[in-house]
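ESCALATION

Customer reports they have been waiting on this structure for their group meeting. Please prioritize. Original submission:
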Amino acid sequence: MTMETLAADLKDKTTISVPSEAQDAPVAEAIGTSTSSAAKKKNKKKAASTAAPADAEAKEEAEGDDDEDEDDEEEDGANTADNTTVKKKKKKNNKKKKKVAQTEPPTIPVSKIFGNKIYPEGELCDYNEENLWRTTNEEKRALERQNFDQYNDVRRASEVHRQVRQYARRNIKPGMSMIEIVEMIENGTRNLVEANGFESGIGFPTGCSLNHCAAHYTPNTGDKTVIQYGDVCKIDFGVHVNGRIIDSAFTLTFDPVYDNLLAAVKDATNTGIKEAGIDVRLCDIGAAIQEVMESYEVEIEGKTYQVKPIRNLNGHSIDPYKIHGGKSVPIVKGGDQTKMEEGEYFAIETFGSTGRGLVHEDMETSHYARVYDVQHVPLRLPRAKSLLQTINKEFGTLPFCRRYLDRIGEQKYVLALRNLVDAGVVDAYPPLVDIKGSFTAQYEHTLVLKPTRKEVLSRGDDY
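Update from on-call: job pushed to the front of the queue and completed.
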């Protein structure tokens, strides 16, 4: 074999053993794809075991199309579960308590309606110019904050009064007996205030004085009196919480002929409230009340009457467990020059009449109260001693009536009660009446002279 032949042979072998680029590419591509797929799966497992949820997008970009679809489904499922859990938690956390609605007749205590045990403020009124500085004075504001619990107690009593009286105003109708009316009001009061002895309960017996009777009438057991369409009825009842008494009254009529009589007395009461304030003289309030009330006239059965203030009836201060405190608020001029003071509670009440404007005692007594500061008095009748023990236990110095004694099971107590009155241990409050044939009306609110402003506690949408 020559050198030329050998060289040609070697050249042919080289051509056969070395693939061309066209042949090489598919093989290399197949090998590369296989290697890349294995590496990606390995990386995917590693990433799945170490990656945080926040790296989900990076993982998806590193995976193939098939794997992306599969992972998307898995992640969507996981996110859905997580979102459902979050939504459930949010729904549970944001769930608002339903406001408890009052029933008809009212039976749900106001403490259940106001779950936080913070009760609504009454009407807040600034004092006159000389005392306007109190509104922003930090010392007075701090003192007011210190008395919050006391104000909250009396606001609770006020809310009870508002809800009970609004129900009564809607439901008292001609033909109802007076006993039905007072029991409706008193049962509602006991339910809403959660009556519990001296902690909370009725402030005094429910007055429902008719026509010429202006005050201090409530039916005794067996009273058959029925309210008529032409009657003028004064509804006066009280609520107390920890001895803080709300005393508020309104006049109920069915015949519009009495509208001007009611308007006169309501306007006079609001005038008294407006004039009241720290350092205000009581006689000045009386003069303002009289001027307003006497500016009204009312026509009844073709006869015109000037509305007269009943000059021997007054508003009064209220002390803990003592409905009539030491100060009287006149409703005519020329009264006491004593001044109102910071922190005092007052019942501003006015009475108007188409009669003489003067009342006297008449009819059967129903209202009683133990004398507030009575000293020990020796009693001869054992029954009187026993009755006094009952009065001290059940009512203390809060007013009561004969129906209340019947309710707690007392029997044959009339003689013993009279003995307590005669001995000066218990005061009797007979009904107070103007001349027969006349008509009387009453409106009343309780206010407190707080350090910064006065608050008309018993104010409501009705009056």
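Sent to customer with the following note: The chain is about 40% helix and 20% strand.
Escalation resolved.
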